[in-house]
C-alpha cells in the first residue's frame, strides 16, 4: 500500500494532483503524523475483521501484532493497581513483561503417548493411595476395637433429629390426617405441606447435574493440580532419558546401590530372613558378573584402549580401573564368625545349674573344668621348665630308660583297657620316682602294693573283657600331651618328665589334703562306730573302704605312697589323675620302642582338649569295682569343690549322707527297675507258626525253622524312649493317652510362650467363678449387629474435615465466582 | 436345757418382689475352685456340640424363575426387597420376609448381565445381552396409581454400541459405570457415555464402584487382570495380572482400600489397593472356580459362591472357610450376597432357585431374653477361649460335604502334594538356589503394571 491511495480517499491533495502548500514544512509533518495515525487505525481495522469462520485462514489478513506491550495494557495494569491486590498486579506485570529473545525457545515435543499415559496413571495412583490412606486410623481402630456395634453411626443420626423436626417431616397424606393437621396447625400449614408433596421429590435433573460454584472451583483446582503433577512427572522422565552424561548415570547408579545397602541394613534388623535372601541375590549378581565378561577388558572398547595403552596414559588408567571394578564386583564377601561366640556363651550357665546336684553332674563337664585348671597350671610350669631345662636333661634320660622297662612288662595290658593302663602308668611313674627319691621311706611297701594292684587290675580286665571288647591301639591319641605356649613360638620341644614331676607333686599334695579330710571324717565315724558296732563290722567288708581307712591312718604321717594308692583307687576319674594320666600317656608314647627318647612332641591344643575329654568320658563310666557309687560321687564332688578353697560344711554333710546310705545300692536298684520297666514295654514278636500244619507229623514235631521264621511277625521297634539319656529318671510314657487327645499340641498363633497361653486358659470367664459384671465384660461379643438394621458402608464424612485452604483456588477465579453469584441473584 | 434348732430367716433368702434377682451367695476364692479350667473346658465342649446341633442354616427357597438365576441385587435402603434376574431376561422383585415375588418384568431379551441401584434406591439400572441399559422404577406402586403399566415398562432405556457385561453405580453422584469392551462412565439418563477408559484390548467381565472412596472403580478383565480406575483423573490407574481370570470383585465396605476378587483358580484373593504386589489373604477351600463374592456389611467376613455347588463363608483374617453351605438340589452358584443387616446370605444358582441362608448357622434369630443372650455370649466366649483345643476344633470344623466335593478335595490335596514333591526333588537335584522358595502369596500376582 502506498500513500497515494490514501491521498485520494482523504482529499488532502488538490484536483491537479499537486500539494496545496509545499512550503509549509510544519504543516507537512503534521500531516504525515496524522496520516500515520490513520494508517495505523485503518490497518488494524482491516486486519481484525473476519466475518466468516473459515478453515483456511488467509495469511495476508492475519493480524500484525505490535512488538511491545501496548499502552492499553499498561492502562489496564494501572487500573488493577488502583483496585489493590498486589499479588495479581505482580502476576499480571510478569505476564506483560516482554520476553527477551534469549528466553524465547521452541516448545519441547511432548512425551510419547504411552509414556505420557503411564505418567498420568502413576500420578493418579499415588493420589488415590494417599486419599485412601486417610482412612487408616479409622480402619485400624475398628480392627482392634474390643467391641463394635453396627451400624456404627446409628447413635449420631438419632441425635440429629429433634422432635420438632420429626413432626415437621410428617406430611399429612390421608383426609383424616389432613383434617387433624388443619385443626392442629391451621390451614396455611396444610397448604404448604401439600405444595411440598406435589413438588418433585429429589432435585430436578438439571439441579442434580449442575455443579455448585464451589464444586466447580474444587474440580478446577483439582484438575489443575493433577495436570501440574503429571507435567512434573513427564518432565522428569524426559530429563532423565535425555541425560547422556556418564558421570550422572554413574552417580545415579551409586545412589541406587547406596539406597539398596541402606535398605539391606534396615532389613537385617527387621527381617533377617529377607536379608539373607537379599544377600543371596547380591551374591547371585556377583556370580553373574563373574560369569559375564563385563569389566574384563575384552570388550571392543577395551581392546581399542589396549591398543592405545602403550602411548596413552589415560587409556591405561581406564583399563586398570575396569579391572579394578571387576575385582571389586567379583570379590566374595567374608562372613563374620560372631555367631559361634554366641553359641558358646550358654554352656557355663548349664554347668552352673547342675553343679549343686551330685546326680546331675556330668563327668565331661567336671573333667573339662579341672582340665582347664591344670592346663593353665602347665602353662605356668612351662616357664620354669624352660630355665631348668638344661640342668635336668641327664636325669630325664635315666628315668625314661627305666620307664621303658616297666612299660614293656605291661605292654599287653595296655592294649586291653586304656583306662587301666593309664592308671598303671601313673603308678609306674610314681614308683620310679619314689625309688629315686632318697627321702621316701616306704619304697619297698610301694613295690608290694604294686603287685597287689596288678592282681586287681587283671581282675578288672577280666570283667571288662566280659562286658565289651575294646581294643585301644597303642598309639591312642588320648595319650598326647599338650602344652601350648603362645609367647614362645619357636619352642616345640617339651621336657615332659620334669613337667610330670612337678604335676605329680601338685597332685600328691592335693591328694594328701583330701586324705586328711577323709581322716577327719573317719574320726567322726569312729565315734559313731562305738555305738553301732554292727554297722562298723559291715563296713569293713567293703574292700575299698577298708583300704581307704588304712590309707588314712598311714597318711597321718604324711606318707607319699598312700597318696598314690588313693589316687589309684579313685581311678582315672578325677581331674587330677586324668591330667596326670594324659601326661603319663605322653611318656608312654615317647617310650615306645620304635621311637627315640628324645623324640619331639608337636602339640596341638585343640587335639589335646578333644582327646582328654574323650578319655574323661570313657572313664566316667562307673565300673563298680573300686568304690561304692555314692561314696564315689561324694568324693567327686569333693574334688570338684576342692579346686579352690574347700572344706565346706556341705561336703561334710554329703559325706555323712553317703556313709549313712552306703549299703543301699540305690543306683543299681534303680537301674534294674528301669530295665524291667523298659523290657515290659517292649513290643513282643508274634509267632503265628502252627507246628505240624502242612506237614506230616505227630507227637513231638519240631517245626521247620524256615517256616517259623516265615510266620514270625517281628514287632516294630519302639521310638527311642524319652528317658533314654536320663539315667536317674523313669518316664512313664503310657500315662495320659486318653488325656492326650484333649491337649493342645501347638502353641496358638499370637502367643509366644506356653506360660502365657496357660494363663489365659486358667483364667475363668464364667459366672460361677467371677462376679456378674466381670463375666459380662469378659464375654461381651466382639461385633454386635441388630436384626433388621441396615449397616451402611463407611462414609467419607467420618474423616476429619480438611482445614480450610487445603484446596487452593486462585483469587481471580474466586472473584469471578463471586461476581457470578451476585449476577444470578 | 436349751436346745438349738436349725432356723432359717426368710429375709436372708427370699426376694422382696418377683422382679428381684435371686440372691446367690458365692465365694469366689480361687482356692475353693480347683477345677475351674477343667469345668470350663467341659462347658466349651458342650457349647461347641450344641452349636453343631443347632446349626440349621437353610431358611427358605424362593422359586419362580423359569431359567437359571443370573444375578441378584440387594436394595440399598430396603432390607426386605431383593431383585433377581434370570438368563431369559426376566427380572423379579421379591419380598424376603413374606418370601413372595412381588413383581415380574421382562427386563431384557436374553441374559441379564448386571443390575445396580441409584444411591437413593429409587431406580434400578439393568444391562443385558440385548445391548440395552434400562432404568426401572423400584417402587412403581407407591409413586403412581397406574401401577400396571409402570411396573412392567422401563422408565428409560439406552442402546449401547457394544454388549455390556456389568454395571455399577456411584455411591453418591448420578454416575454409573459399565464394563464390556471397555469401561464406560455414564451420567444419569444421558444417551452417550461421558467417559471411556481403555487399557489394553481385552474385555472386562465385572465392575464395582468403591462404596467409600467413591471415585475409585475396580474391574476384572478377561485377560486375567484386575484394573483399577479413578474417575477424577479420567484414567485407569493400576493393573495387576493374576494367574487366572477373576470372576467378580467386591469392596470391603468398612475398609475402603481392601477388595476381594473371586478367581477361576478356586481361590479368592483379598488385596490392599495400595499394595498390589501380593494379596493380603488367600481364601482357599473351594474345589472349583469361584463365581461370585460379597463382603459382609461389617467387613469381617466374605461369602463366596462357587461352581462346585457350595457356598463358603470365610473370616477375613483366616485362609480357610468357617462354614460351607450346600443342599442336594442346589446346582452351580451364580450369585451370592450378604444382606445389609449382616444376618442372612442369599444365593442364586443354576437351577432357578434363590435360597436364603443364615449367616451364622447356629444363631437364634428373633427376640432373646437377657439370660438367654448371656448364656449365648458365654458359650461364644468359651468357644473362642478353647478354640485351639483339638476336640473343640475338631467338632466345630467338622462338616458333611457332598461326595463330589470330598473327592475333589482329596484329588486337590494329591495334586498339591505331588507338585510339592516334584519341586522338592528339583530343589534337591539342582544347584542350590536354582529352585527358590516362593511364598504362596507371592505366586499370586504375575505382574503389576503402572
TrEMBL record, chain B:
It holds the Pfam family Sof1. It is found in: Nucleus, Nucleolus. SUPFAM superfamilies: WD40 repeat-like. Keywords: Nucleus, Repeat, Ribonucleoprotein, WD repeat. Residues 359-445 form the Sof1-like protein domain. Coiled coil: none annotated. Residues 418-430 have a biased composition (Basic residues). Gene3D superfamilies: YVTN repeat-like/Quinoprotein amine dehydrogenase. The keyword Ribonucleoprotein applies. InterPro entries: Sof1, WD40/YVTN_repeat-like_dom_sf, WD40_PAC1, WD40_repeat_CS, WD40_repeat_dom_sf, WD40_rpt, WD_repeat_DCAF13/WDSOF1. Its main location: nucleus. WD repeats lie at residues 62-104, 105-139, 283-324, 326-367. One of its GO terms (cellular component) is small-subunit processome. PROSITE patterns: WD_REPEATS_1, WD_REPEATS_2, WD_REPEATS_REGION. Residues 417-450 are annotated as: Disordered. One of its GO terms (biological process) is maturation of SSU-rRNA from tricistronic rRNA transcript (SSU-rRNA, 5.8S rRNA, LSU-rRNA). It comes from the Eukaryota. Belongs to the WD repeat DCAF13/WDSOF1 family. This is DDB1- and CUL4-associated factor 13. It comes from Folsomia candida (Springtail).
Amino acid at each position: 500500500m502506498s500513500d497515494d491511495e490514501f491521498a485520494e480517499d482523504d482529499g488532502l491533495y488538490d484536483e491537479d494532483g499537486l500539494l496545496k502548500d509545499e512550503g509549509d514544512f510544519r504543516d507537512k509533518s503534521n500531516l504525515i503524523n496524522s496520516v500515520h495515525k490513520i494508517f495505523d487505525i485503518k490497518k488494524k481495522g482491516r486486519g481484525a475483521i473476519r466475518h466468516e469462520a473459515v478453515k483456511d485462514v488467509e495469511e495476508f489478513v492475519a493480524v500484525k501484532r505490535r512488538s511491545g506491550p501496548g499502552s492499553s495494557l499498561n492502562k489496564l495494569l494501572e487500573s488493577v493497581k488502583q483496585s489493590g491486590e498486589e499479588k495479581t498486579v505482580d502476576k499480571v506485570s510478569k505476564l506483560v513483561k516482554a520476553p527477551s529473545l534469549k528466553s524465547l525457545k521452541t516448545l519441547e515435543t511432548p512425551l510419547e503417548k504411552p509414556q505420557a499415559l503411564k505418567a498420568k496413571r502413576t500420578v493418579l495412583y499415588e493420589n488415590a493411595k494417599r486419599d485412601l490412606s486417610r482412612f487408616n486410623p479409622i480402619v485400624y481402630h475398628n480392627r482392634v476395637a474390643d467391641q463394635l456395634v453396627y451400624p456404627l453411626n446409628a447413635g449420631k443420626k438419632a441425635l440429629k433429629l429433634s422432635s420438632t423436626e420429626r413432626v415437621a417431616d410428617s406430611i399429612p397424606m390421608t383426609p383424616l390426617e389432613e383434617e387433624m393437621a388443619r385443626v392442629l396447625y391451621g390451614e396455611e400449614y396444610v397448604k404448604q405441606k401439600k405444595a411440598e408433596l406435589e413438588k418433585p421429590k429429589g432435585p430436578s435433573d438439571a439441579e442434580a447435574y449442575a455443579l455448585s460454584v464451589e464444586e466447580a472451583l474444587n474440580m478446577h483446582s483439582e484438575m489443575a493440580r493433577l495436570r501440574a503433577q503429571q507435567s512434573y512427572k513427564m518432565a522428569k522422565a524426559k530429563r532423565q532419558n535425555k541425560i547422556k552424561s556418564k558421570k550422572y548415570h554413574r552417580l545415579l547408579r551409586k545412589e541406587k546401590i547406596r539406597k539398596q545397602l541402606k535398605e539391606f541394613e534396615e532389613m537385617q534388623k527387621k527381617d533377617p530372613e529377607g536379608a539373607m535372601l537379599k544377600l543371596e541375590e547380591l551374591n547371585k549378581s556377583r556370580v553373574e558378573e563373574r560369569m559375564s565378561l563385563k569389566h574384563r577388558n575384552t570388550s571392543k572398547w577395551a581392546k581399542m584402549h589396549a591398543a592405545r595403552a602403550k602411548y596413552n596414559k589415560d587409556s591405561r588408567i581406564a583399563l586398570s580401573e575396569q579391572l579394578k571394578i571387576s575385582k571389586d564386583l567379583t570379590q566374595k564377601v567374608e562372613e563374620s564368625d560372631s555367631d559361634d561366640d554366641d553359641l558358646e556363651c550358654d554352656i557355663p550357665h548349664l554347668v552352673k545349674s547342675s553343679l549343686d546336684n551330685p546326680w546331675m553332674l556330668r563327668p565331661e563337664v567336671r573333667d573339662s573344668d579341672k582340665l582347664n585348671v591344670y592346663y593353665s597350671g602347665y602353662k605356668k610350669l612351662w616357664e620354669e621348665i624352660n630355665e631348668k631345662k638344661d640342668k635336668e636333661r641327664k636325669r630325664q634320660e635315666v628315668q625314661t630308660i627305666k620307664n621303658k622297662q616297666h612299660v614293656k612288662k605291661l605292654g599287653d595290658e595296655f592294649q586291653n583297657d586304656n583306662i587301666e593302663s593309664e592308671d598303671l602308668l601313673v603308678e609306674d611313674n610314681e614308683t620310679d620316682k619314689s625309688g629315686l627319691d632318697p627321702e621316701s621311706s616306704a619304697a619297698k611297701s610301694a613295690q608290694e602294693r604294686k603287685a597287689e594292684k596288678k592282681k586287681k587290675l587283671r581282675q578288672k580286665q577280666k570283667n571288662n573283657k566280659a562286658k565289651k571288647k575294646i581294643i585301644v591301639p597303642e598309639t591312642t591319641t588320648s595319650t598326647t600331651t599338650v602344652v601350648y605356649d603362645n609367647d614362645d613360638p619357636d619352642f616345640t620341644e617339651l621336657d615332659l618328665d620334669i613337667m610330670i614331676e612337678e604335676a605329680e607333686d601338685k597332685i600328691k599334695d592335693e591328694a594328701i589334703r583330701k586324705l586328711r579330710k577323709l581322716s577327719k571324717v573317719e574320726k567322726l565315724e569312729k565315734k559313731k562306730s562305738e555305738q553301732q558296732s554292727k554297722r562298723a563290722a559291715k563296713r569293713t567288708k567293703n574292700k575299698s573302704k577298708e583300704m581307704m581307712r588304712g590309707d588314712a591312718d598311714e597318711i597321718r604321717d604324711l606318707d607319699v605312697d598312700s597318696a598314690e594308692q588313693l589316687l589309684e583307687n579313685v581311678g582315672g576319674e578325677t581331674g587330677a589323675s586324668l591330667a596326670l594320666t594324659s601326661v603319663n600317656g605322653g611318656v608312654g608314647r615317647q617310650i615306645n620302642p620304635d621311637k627315640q627318647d628324645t623324640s619331639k612332641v608337636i602339640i596341638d591344643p585343640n587335639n589335646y582338649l578333644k582327646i582328654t575329654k574323650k578319655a574323661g568320658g570313657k572313664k566316667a563310666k562307673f565300673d563298680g569295682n573300686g568304690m561304692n557309687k555314692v561314696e564315689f560321687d561324694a568324693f567327686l564332688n569333693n574334688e570338684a569343690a576342692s579346686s579352690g578353697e574347700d572344706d565346706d560344711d556341705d561336703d561334710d554333710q554329703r559325706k555323712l549322707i553317703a556313709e549313712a546310705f552306703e549299703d543301699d545300692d540305690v543306683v543299681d536298684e534303680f537301674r534294674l527297675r528301669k530295665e524291667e520297666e523298659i523290657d515290659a514295654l517292649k513290643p513282643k514278636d508274634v509267632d503265628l507258626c502252627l507246628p505240624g500244619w502242612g506237614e506230616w507229623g505227630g507227637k513231638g514235631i519240631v517245626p521247620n525253622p524256615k517256616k517259623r521264621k516265615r510266620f514270625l511277625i517281628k514287632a516294630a521297634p519302639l521310638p527311642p524312649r524319652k528317658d533314654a539319656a536320663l539315667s536317674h529318671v523313669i518316664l512313664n510314657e503310657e500315662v495320659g493317652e486318653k488325656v492326650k487327645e484333649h491337649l493342645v499340641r501347638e502353641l496358638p498363633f499370637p502367643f509366644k510362650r506356653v506360660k502365657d497361653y496357660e494363663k489365659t486358659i486358667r483364667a475363668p470367664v464364667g459366672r460361677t467363678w467371677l462376679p456378674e459384671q466381670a463375666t459380662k465384660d469378659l464375654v461381651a461379643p466382639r461385633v454386635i449387629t441388630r436384626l433388621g438394621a441396615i449397616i451402611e458402608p463407611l462414609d467419607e464424612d467420618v474423616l476429619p474435615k480438611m482445614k480450610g485452604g487445603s484446596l487452593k483456588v486462585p483469587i481471580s477465579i474466586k472473584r469471578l465466582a463471586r461476581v457470578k453469584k451476585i449476577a444470578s441473584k | 436345757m436349751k436346745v438349738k434348732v436349725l432356723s432359717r430367716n426368710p429375709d436372708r433368702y427370699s426376694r422382696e418382689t418377683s422382679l428381684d434377682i435371686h440372691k446367690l451367695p458365692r465365694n469366689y476364692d480361687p482356692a475353693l475352685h480347683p477345677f475351674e479350667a477343667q469345668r470350663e473346658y467341659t462347658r466349651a465342649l458342650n457349647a461347641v456340640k450344641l452349636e453343631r446341633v443347632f446349626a440349621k442354616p437353610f431358611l427358605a427357597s424362593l422359586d419362580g424363575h423359569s431359567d437359571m438365576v443370573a444375578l441378584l441385587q440387594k436394595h440399598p435402603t430396603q432390607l426386605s426387597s431383593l431383585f433377581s434376574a434370570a438368563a431369559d431376561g426376566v427380572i423379579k422383585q421379591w419380598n424376603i420376609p413374606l418370601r413372595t415375588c412381588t413383581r415380574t418384568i421382562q427386563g431384557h431379551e436374553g441374559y441379564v448381565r448386571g443390575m445396580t441401584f441409584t444411591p437413593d434406591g429409587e431406580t434400578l439400572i439393568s444391562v443385558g445381552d440385548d445391548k440395552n441399559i434400562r432404568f426401572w422404577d423400584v417402587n412403581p406402586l407407591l409413586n403412581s396409581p397406574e401401577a400396571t403399566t409402570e411396573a412392567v415398562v422401563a422408565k428409560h432405556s439406552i442402546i449401547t454400541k457394544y454388549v455390556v457385561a456389568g454395571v455399577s453405580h456411584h455411591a453418591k453422584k448420578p454416575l454409573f459405570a459399565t464394563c464390556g469392551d471397555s469401561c464406560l462412565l455414564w451420567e444419569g439418563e444421558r444417551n452417550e457415555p461421558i467417559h471411556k477408559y481403555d487399557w489394553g484390548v481385552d474385555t472386562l467381565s465385572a465392575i464395582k464402584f468403591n462404596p467409600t472412596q467413591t471415585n475409585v472403580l475396580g474391574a476384572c478383565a478377561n485377560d486375567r487382570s484386575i484394573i483399577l480406575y479413578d474417575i477424577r483423573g479420567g484414567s485407569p490407574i493400576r493393573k495387576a495380572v493374576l494367574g487366572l481370570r477373576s470372576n467378580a470383585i467386591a469392596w470391603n465396605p468398612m475398609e475402603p482400600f481392601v477388595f476381594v476378587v473371586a478367581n477361576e483358580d478356586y481361590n479368592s484373593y483379598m488385596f490392599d489397593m495400595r499394595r498390589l504386589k501380593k494379596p493380603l489373604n488367600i481364601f482357599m477351600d473351594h474345589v472349583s472356580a469361584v463365581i461370585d463374592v460379597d463382603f459382609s456389611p461389617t467387613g469381617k467376613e466374605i461369602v463366596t459362591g462357587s461352581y462346585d455347588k457350595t457356598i463358603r463363608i470365610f473370616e477375613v483374617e483366616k485362609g480357610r472357610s468357617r462354614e460351607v453351605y450346600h443342599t442336594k438340589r442346589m446346582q452351580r452358584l451364580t450369585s451370592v450376597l450378604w444382606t445389609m443387616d449382616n444376618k442372612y446370605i442369599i444365593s442364586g444358582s443354576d437351577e432357578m432357585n434363590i435360597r436364603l441362608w443364615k449367616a451364622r448357622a447356629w444363631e437364634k434369630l428373633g427376640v432373646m431374653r437377657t439370660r438367654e443372650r448371656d448364656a449365648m455370649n458365654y458359650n461364644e466366649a468359651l468357644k473362642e477361649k478353647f478354640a485351639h483345643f483339638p476336640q473343640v476344633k475338631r467338632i466345630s470344623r467338622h462338616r458333611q460335604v457332598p461326595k463330589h466335593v470330598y473327592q475333589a478335595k482329596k484329588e486337590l490335596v494329591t495334586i498339591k502334594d505331588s507338585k510339592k514333591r516334584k519341586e522338592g526333588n528339583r530343589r534337591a537335584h539342582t544347584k542350590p538356589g536354582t529352585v527358590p522358595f516362593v511364598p504362596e502369596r507371592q505366586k499370586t500376582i504375575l505382574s503389576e503394571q503402572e
